[in-house]
Amino acid sequence: MRFSQRIGKRPIKVELEKEKLSTELRNSLWTLIIELVIESKNEDTDRFKREKWTPRSNFFRSIWIHFFKRPIDNLPISHDIYYGQVEYLQAQYEIRKWFYGVEWDLALDFVEFCVNYDANMYSDQFNSILKREMSAYRFVDGSLVEINSKEEVVEIETAIKNSGKFNSVKTHLKRAIELYADKKNPDYRNSIKESISAVESLSKIIVQNNKTTLGQALKIIEKKHNIPKSLKSAFSSLYGYTSDEGGIRHSLLEKNVKIDMEEARFMLITCSAFVNYLISKK
């Protein structure tokens, strides 16, 4: 906390920032894009070798072609001794102008594109800034998702990490995140299906019976691994919510069940936590 906030001259942020980007956050995200993403690509690499494009030129070309989806012939190209390479400063200027002029969600689309361009290697640094500026969004496995607390992020990331040796479990969790985090067309219903399927898949692995149901598997796990009966019953009830006639999995009545972001987030976090719990018990 800064001095001005400690003495009450400036307000203290107490709520997470949703559906907007403060000037401070937008500035900080742009700084990371410059310092981590753009400047990490050595512009001299391959200029006099057989490669047609340098790493930095490739990055700007990718933005033009795959993110902006603009015609390639309006990408600034150098006409000096490095003829054919991208004119970095001009391209960066145009991207910056766009980044500071668009709505918050499009700006975060671009941040997500940059992080995933480098195989998600900078997500921790971006999450640090998002946390510092009290944003409601965090990178989880390469996707920006709305998270209400640090503990929720930890549960989801830990579940993905812990389930690495259980491919089916990890696949379900990653798919649940993708469906939940899709800004243009979120699929909360199927995100919930994937979340509960992660628990079901792990339970089948633990009892070594691929044909059993989650309810049956939990009864075996409860006895074998000393899971409190109340906890088993609670999760069985959640499973029932997704399985009964009014539930999410009942294909004939799917349209009668309203599923919102809150339900999908709750199930993703809860199932991630239960996956961590089952793995620790196993």
From TrEMBL:
Residue ranges constituting the HEPN AbiJ-N-terminal domain according to the UniProt record:
1-162
- InterPro entries documented for this protein: AbiJ_NTD4
Domain of life where this protein originates:
Bacteria
Identification of the protein by name: HEPN AbiJ-N-terminal domain-containing protein
Write down the species.
Tenacibaculum skagerrakense
